[in-house]
Amino acid sequence: MNFTKETRVTLNDGNMMPILGLGTYAAPDVPKSLAEDAVKVAIDLGYRHIDGAFITGNEMQIGNAIRCKIAEGVIKREDLFYTGKLWCTYFSPEMVRKGLERSLRDMGLDYLDLFLMHWPVSLKPTGAADPSDTDKPFIYDNVDFCATWEALEACKDAGLVKSLGVSNFNRRQLERLLNKPGLKYKPVCNQVECHIYLNQNKLHSYCKSKDIVVVAYSVLGSHRDKNWVDLSLPVLLDDPILNKIAAKYNRSSAEVAMRFILQKGIVVLAKSFSPARIRQNLGVFEFELKPEDMKTLDSLDRNLHYGPFKEVKQHPEYPFHDEY
Description:
The protein is an alpha/beta fold. Helices cover 33% and strands 15% of the residues.
């Protein structure tokens, strides 16, 4: 498996996605400027895949970094793959394009490379936008995500986005979308939490059978943001077996955790705002895990979601009631 930072996977619509991306999620109390600095560092180091989201609130800074590097001549726009996400309060068909255009406006870009439905659940914009808004609760909506998808297809036809995908969908929800009458574009990917404690083998196998790429977030466990994560859960990078294997290869536990996911044929998003770690994460291309170590790491699965989005557990489209 001779992966390099230039390696890309071909999506079912013919577009190409780099197999390693920079994640840009940050807790609300993290300065937005850190995302801008991190993206600049990552692009200088050769990252060509940046993963963002409207709900994170830092797309303006990410856009500044991208445009800066284009102006400097470091990259051309077509060299870079940017993923944005439609937040759950924009699922009504008449709101979908507005959600996409807001991201484009914030970033100062003409198009996105990939736009995902962030979750399969719809929320009313009159409620809270995210869990950190403690003054307001979420207000559930009942928009059929198949109707949302049709509006997304129109955005692709309008040239505002190159590829369309989903995030946090289970098998049943993917099947419903794939079997939708009049489906014009299949989702190219399903972005899900995936790591040594949540290997997603069954969902990955299903997606592979449908030519849908799995993209992994939280590959190093979690950002430990109390708004989303139970802080009593174990710290993944402290796992003794993971660390033992890392020592064997003279690598960090983070590099081994990421390489494990890459070797499973899954695209990896590595979130970091530390220049040293952004550089170190490229070490995943300098070694290969032996089959017996892949098997050992696979056995650590405990179906553990660090980000279960429990605030919408009662929503009829909550994805994690199903086995996968």
